Amino acid sequence: MKVETHVDLSSSLSFHVPALATHYVQVDTDEDVRDALLYAQRNRLEILILGGGSNMLFHNDFQGLVIQINSKGIHVLIDDGRRLEVAVEAGEDWHEFVLKSLENGWGGLENLALIPGCVGATPMQNIGAYGVEIKDVFSWLEAIEVSTGLLKRFNLKECKLGYRESVFKRELKGEWVIVRVAYRLDRESTLKTSYGSIENEISDINKNELTHLDVANAVIKIRNQKLPNPNVLGNAGSFFKNPIVKEADFNSLKEGYPDMPHYILEGGLVKLAAGWLIETSGWKGHHRGTHGVHEHQALVLVNHGGATGQEIWSLAQDIMLSVKEKYSIQLEPEVNQISMSTT
Ligand code: EPU
User: Fold this and answer.
1) Domains and CATH numbers, the chain
2) Distance 7 CA to ligand 1 centre (A)
3) Has residue 343 got a pLDDT over 80?
4) Rounded mean pLDDT of the chain?
5) How far apart are CA 33 and CA 71, in angstroms?
6) How confident is the model at residue 1 (pLDDT cuts 50, 70, 90)?
7) Which residue in the list 110, 133, 142, 334 is annotated as catalytic?
């Protein structure tokens, strides 16, 4: 384990904004994680866990130890010929794991193809797309406690996975480092194609011949059309969460905006489309020189080149204010904001 100082993080961040870490270390094993935590404790450094850097916006430099998880390994723990449990080290690239699982004929992850980031981040915010969330395929995860170095296994219930939420973003924030995740896969899992755009993409394939790979290819095609590739145009996917409101509030909004896209949830709640709210507030394709709002998906903020994290955050705040003024809805960022007071 080698701690480096004053390391430029920008190439590890999908937003490609400038950010230095005063201390930085890459870890490959659980032992490395423990050593890094001890180093931070002894030197009284704040820590930040970095996976693929695809869901973070740095507002400024980080004074502390950035621990980048680089562990690799995919292990089949159970295989009864149809169903499997597969444990994956946190530093594995998510999409590469999805492709590997498809090559092996393992179903369950096809709707989650092409999501940027590492395996360790997938339960952190219960990533989801095209009708599937990590919680649908999650078995357990193992994490190391920051204060003690102990390894603990968390089951589904303990992780409290919700819409882009988990216990690690709430009650246990900053207390655990996720080191591996186990998924339940199934060679014969039912294909989930009800999301409208998937149906369109697969319409010319015979339903009886449809495979997990066909669904993944449809998802990859849709994502490539709608979402900018972070290697080409800096971004962190959806910048905001889709807001969830009470049915009564939705009903009064619907009177003024009958076309408002919405999804009825349990418990008298309704999920609205942040992309629609932002687009109809006039922001889609908005350009501020170095940065702006993506032209095909208003939920995605982009760095055209040379933007700082603070500039992008300032645009995000302007969008939140304008949606609040028009619809009385407070948008919440989905991307983690990394901001340190510089005093
Ligand atoms: N919409 C607009 N304008 C836009 C974008 C969307 O009017 O600029 C409308 C669409 O017409 C549609 C509705 O909003 O009626 C929903 O749009 P879409 O299906 O594109 O999905 P989304 O709600 O915008 C969510 C996830 C995405 C995920 C897609 C597909 C969140 C915050 N975002 O986006 O996740 O890929 O569904 O399942 O839940 C991510 O988290 O980074 C991400 C890309």
Assistant:
1) 4-69 (3.30.43.10), 74-226 (3.30.465.10), 234-338 (3.90.78.10)
2) 34
3) no
4) 97
5) 10
6) confident
7) 334
Taking the CA of residue 241 as reference, the ligand 1 atom at the shortest distance is 32
Nearest residue by C-alpha to atom 9 in ligand 1: 276
The closest residue, in CA terms, to atom 15 on ligand 1 is 261
> Is-catalytic flag, 288?
no
The rounded Å distance from CA 227 to ligand 1 centre is: 10
37-70 confidence digits (pLDDT tens): 999 999 999 999 999 999 999 999 999 999 999 9
